[in-house]
Amino acid sequence: MIPPLRIYNTLSRQKEVFEPLNPPFVGMYVCGPTVYSDVHLGNVRTFLSFDIIYRYLQHLGYKVRYVRNITDVGHLVDDQDAGEDKIARKAKLDNLEPMEVVQRYTNGFHQVLEQFNILQPSIEPTATGHIVEQVRLTKQLLDKGLAYEVNGSVYFDVAKYNEDHHYGILSGRNVEEMMAGYRELDGQEEKRNKVDFALWKKASPEHIMRWESPWGPGFPGWHLECTVMSTKYLGERFDIHGGGMDLKFPHHECEIAQSVGGFGHEPAKYWLHTNMLTANGQKMSKSLGNSFLPHELFNGSHELLDQAYSPMTVRFFMLQSHYSSTLDFSNEALQAAQKGYKKLINGLRILKRLTFIPADDTAQNEKAAGQVNSLCDNCYRAMNDDFNTAQTIAHLFNLLKKINSIHTGALSVTELGEETFLRMQKTFIDFTENILGLREESNVKPEDLIDALLDIYRDAKENKDYDKVDRIRARLKQNGIVVKDMKEGIDWAYEE
Ligand code: AMP
Ligand code: ZN
């Protein structure tokens, strides 16, 4: 028996059997990127982790509505309450319209995710497209006495909320301690308490991204967009909410407070947090200056790289660790991943060509069939244990040994029996391609292959082996290539 899917819920701090609120439908919300600069490899790790979850839930037969937002309101550099609008700053620097900045980095984000074979979400809403909803929720929180307005800005009143609820429930913090831990308000602050957070901020005259509101021109606080977009598309209660660990506090804590305050209950049944990609033990981040951009990996241009690495090598490298562990970036690990990925893909190619043709003189081998069946079970067991891709890969490598044995003739398909053989084939393909999302990636250039063939053609011509010459000509022609015998040398052209 394979145990059911269990997920580590960061809210309850334990693994729980996954029971969606409204099966077979599953609502999943993941905090998306801020679009004022390129996504780095750390961001990719988080979106890849949720890609695996999305793919596996669908494989299990759930109908998943996956919502991942785009944070395109500028917010501010220091935190969401003070400093300069990041998008406006970038726009000024590059002489662009703010929405041009947003579009440029949104396009770049999509392109990067496609290179890593990360599926698109079902809905990708933007913060700027949901200002009306954000104003509405701010009003609701004001009406309930959980927020207050000061000088055109509106803040969430954490102390008030904490009288009846627990602000800090997700991150395990205590409000009194937090308040004591913060420096005194400096007198210039509008907030009643340092822990309070902005729902709406008044726009200063130079602030470009601004909208009208009952409190005057301004822009929404960061935490609000995720509350309104998740609940708009998934309902006030939905199944999964995810993001990187660094979003647990304050972002997700604030989302919970907004939902509990506004709608009377917590938004998500399961909270999932991915751990960080690190470089030399430090979180990879734009601000620390230790981040890799995907294209720097693909062309090997980053100073910390010994060589270039392909997107599928990097995908495989990331899947070799569990999403809740930190993962440290290293050349050695990437080189090992490159080998591992190629081994798996070679196995996949062999497997796809295998067919079940029973041999009369061979009997079924119950032991071999039993081993293959339990290896298939193990793949599910590992994924059902909180999406353990690292273990799944280890089981796939064990299956690969069986596939290679069949390929070399040490094991025959007849020994496995048709049912087991077909199960092995389906499981291996499902897991590598559909669940782990590894696709075949070839760096072979067609032109190089044509040149290699033309070398043989030239030799055959010199040796007057006209049969071979004709065969090469014919095979190339089948592929739309004509061989041109020139006065000097040989060339080719696309058939017109
Ligand atoms: P950002 O665009 O910075 O808001 O980040 C988008 C997503 O990437 C968030 O879910 C972050 O938690 C996540 N993230 C940022 N840095 C890393 C990192 N070094 N490793 C893994 N995930 C990260
Ligand atoms: Zn969010």
Helix content: 40-55%
CA distance, first residue to last residue: 60 Å
Numbering strands along the chain, what is their spatial order in the largest sheet? Answer: 4-3-9-10
Runs with pLDDT <50, length 5+?
77-81
How many separate helices?
17
Q: Name the beta content range.
A: 5-15%
Bound molecules: adenosine monophosphate, zinc ion
- Number of extended strands: 15
Q: Helix/strand-derived class?
A: alpha/beta
Radius of gyration: 28 Å
Mass-distribution shape: globular
Question: How would you describe the overall organization of this protein?
Answer:
With 496 residues, this protein is α/β, with parallel strands linked by helices. 46% of the residues lie in helices and 14% in strands. It is built from 17 helices and 15 strands. The chain has helices at residues 41-59, 86-94, 98-115, 131-143, 158-164, 175-181, 222-234, 248-263, 294-298, 311-319, 331-353, 366-384, 389-408, 413-416, 418-435, 446-462, 466-478; strands at 6-9, 14-17, 25-30, 63-68, 147-150, 153-156, 197-202, 218-220, 238-244, 268-274, 277-279, 282-283, 327-329, 481-485, 490-494. The strands form five sheets. The chain has a four-stranded parallel sheet, with helices on both faces. A four-stranded antiparallel sheet has the order 5-6-7-8. The chain has a three-stranded mixed sheet with strand order 12-11-13. Helix 8 (248-263) links the parallel strand 9 and strand 10. Helix 4 (131-143) packs across helix 7 and helix 13 crosses helix 15. The relative contact order is 0.11. The model is unreliable at 77-81 (pLDDT under 50). It binds adenosine monophosphate (AMP) and zinc ion. Adenosine monophosphate (AMP) is lined by residues 31, 33-34, 42-43, 45-46, 243-244, 246-247, 274, 276-277, 283-285. Adenosine monophosphate is lined by residues 31, 33-34, 42-43, 45-46, 243-244, 246-247, 274, 276-277, 283-285.
